[in-house]
Amino acid sequence: MKVSQTQYSVYILTNYSKTVLYIGVTNNSEQRLVEHYLEKENPLSNAFTSLYNVIYLIYYEDYDYVNDAIAREKEIKKWRREKKDKLINTTNPQREFLNKELIGEWPPKEMGHRKSN
C-alpha cells in the first residue's frame, strides 16, 4: 500500500466574535488561511467567509487521505451547532485563534498564491 505524502486537514473557522462557524477541507492549511484572509480583504468577494469575516482558525484535524478528510468534513457539516461546539472544545476549550500558531504571523504579511503541484 502506498502511503500518501500529502496531509489533508478538516478545519473550522470562526469570526472575531465567535458567532459563525465555517467547515472546510484543504491540503495546504497555511495557504488556505491566507486565501480566506485575501477573500475578506476583497470588497467584491461574495465568499461566505468574506461576507461574515470568518478567518480565525479554532479547530483542525489531519488526515493522510483526501477521501477520509472529505467524509469527515461532510459529517461535521451535518451536525447541529451544539455538537460542533463540543468537538471544538475537545482540543480548544478557550476558543483561542490558532492562525498564528499555524502560520507564525497573523494577519499574514506575505500574501502568496496557492502553488500548483
Name the features.
single chain; 117 residues; alpha+beta; GIY-YIG endonuclease; 3-stranded antiparallel sheet; 5 helices; 39% helix; globular
Structure description:
There is one protein chain. The protein has about 120 residues and is α+β, with helices and mostly antiparallel strands. It has one domain: GIY-YIG endonuclease (3-Layer(aba) Sandwich). It contains five helices and three strands; from the N terminus they run ββααβααα. It has a three-stranded antiparallel sheet, sandwiched between helices. The chain is globular, with a radius of gyration of 14 Å. The two termini are about 20 Å apart.
The spatial strand order of the largest sheet comes to: 2-1-3
Task: Based on the coordinates given, report the CATH architecture.
Answer: 3-Layer(aba) Sandwich
Amount of helix? 25-40%
Biggest sheet character: 3 strands, antiparallel
What string gives the helices and strands in order? EEHHEHHH
Kindly report the average pLDDT value. Answer: 88
Query: What structural class do the secondary elements suggest?
Result: alpha+beta
Query: How many domains, as an integer?
Result: 1
Query: How many H/I helical runs?
Result: 5
> Rg from C-alpha positions?
14 Å
